[in-house]
TrEMBL record:
<dbReference type="GO" id="GO:0043190">
    <property type="term" value="C:ATP-binding cassette (ABC) transporter complex"/>
</dbReference>
<dbReference type="Pfam" id="PF12974">
    <property type="entry name" value="Phosphonate-bd"/>
</dbReference>
<protein>
    <submittedName>
        <fullName>Phosphate/phosphite/phosphonate ABC transporter substrate-binding protein</fullName>
    </submittedName>
</protein>
<dbReference type="InterPro" id="IPR005770">
    <property type="entry name" value="PhnD"/>
</dbReference>
<comment type="similarity">
    <text>Belongs to the phosphate/phosphite/phosphonate binding protein family.</text>
</comment>
<keyword id="KW-0732">Signal</keyword>
<dbReference type="GO" id="GO:0055085">
    <property type="term" value="P:transmembrane transport"/>
</dbReference>
Length: 324
């Protein structure tokens, strides 16, 4: 586990559970949808799936192609994968009606929900090994940099992952500012690396002194924790964690949902919930591919699980308008 420090943002803690208990992959009796074309397919001639940024496009497509094929085989309709160049691209695709479904970060979902006036709906989110739907934002520096903690970053450079990423920008910036640290003046410079892997690579190549990314915060740091960007990079042979040091982390952040267009038929939404809830047991390799690490599976979520993140996004937007 990550060593806990005092610089945490309690406002970004996972919201309290809704009154209606969520359905979970670990529940008894969870079954995978039976194969066959559905009546809702008449309204969705092609199921278009948005694939968020965070790693290179080739790897994203390779991980998600079996997932797309399984959707095709299960529901008997064409499936197309649309890799977005960055996190904001998924939100823009939803707003333009170019995709039906996508896995999103919490801040990206909140921003899209605001921008589209509620035109997206959260279906399920991934559970961590302890059954929570939280993860953490982390700040990493080179192990040989001499930087041991956040205090050592004063006057140094910091790479954000992506401007629409919860853990790679939104959550750490909000957490630091809540503690009286203004990133624009505390760090010598900040910039966007173009994704989570890119932020870590920028640190390893000494382009930035530290970078922000995401991790489960559970398991062994040597393997990149149980889930997260570091885990993916270790598994690909791109990273030896001995080269890095975690110098800061946030409080738990609600895991982003797999979301769909809110206008789609309720029968479609229920079929997708059943698909994802049963996926870890019935097709573990495909689950592993899209989740990139451990965890207990998925649980159903609603917009209420992200109400706090929506409020923080609205406050951020209001502040930007005041500065203009």
């Amino acid at each position: 586990m990550i060593h806990r420090r005092a610089l945490l943002l309690s406002a970004l803690a996972v919201p309290a559970a809704a009154q209606v208990a969520p359905r979970r992959s670990v529940d008894p009796g969870v079954t995978f949808p039976e194969a066959g074309r559905r009546p809702w397919a008449d309204a969705i001639p092609v199921l278009r799936i948005g694939i968020s940024g965070g790693e290179n496009e080739t790897d994203r497509l390779a991980r998600n192609e079996p997932y797309g094929r399984l959707l095709e085989e299960t529901f008997r309709l064409p499936v197309r994968l649309y890799p977005a160049p960055d996190f904001a691209g998924v939100g823009q695709a939803f707003a333009a009606g170019r995709i039906e479904m996508a896995q999103m970060g919490a801040a990206n979902y909140a921003g899209t929900w605001i921008d589209t006036r509620g035109a997206v709906e959260a279906l399920v989110a991934a559970e961590a090994d302890d059954g929570s739907i939280g993860y953490v934002a982390i700040m990493v520096a080179r192990a040989d940099s001499g930087i041991l903690d956040l205090a050592g970053m004063r006057g140094r450079s910091l790479a954000w992952a992506d401007p629409a990423s919860t853990s790679g920008y939104f959550a750490p910036r909000a957490a630091l500012r809540a503690q009286g640290i203004e990133p624009a003046t505390y760090f010598s410079r900040t910039g966007f690396a173009g994704g989570h892997e890119q932020a870590v690579v920028a640190v390893l190549h000494r382009q930035y002194d530290a970078g922000c990314t995401w991790a489960s915060g559970q398991g062994d740091f040597a393997t990149g924790y149980s889930r997260g960007a570091l885990k993916v990079m270790v598994d690909k042979g791109m990273l030896d964690t001995r080269d890095l040091r975690v110098i800061w982390h946030s409080d738990p952040i609600p895991a982003g949902p797999i979301a769909c267009r809110a206008e789609l038929p309720e029968a479609f939404k229920e079929d997708m919930r059943r698909f994802f809830l049963a996926l870890p047991k019935t097709h573990p390799a495909i689950y592993e591919g899209i989740e990139r690490g451990g965890g207990t599976g998925f649980r159903t979520v609603t917009h209420a699980d992200y109400a706090l993140v929506v409020r923080l996004r609205e406050e951020e937007a209001a502040e930007r308008r005041r500065r203009r």
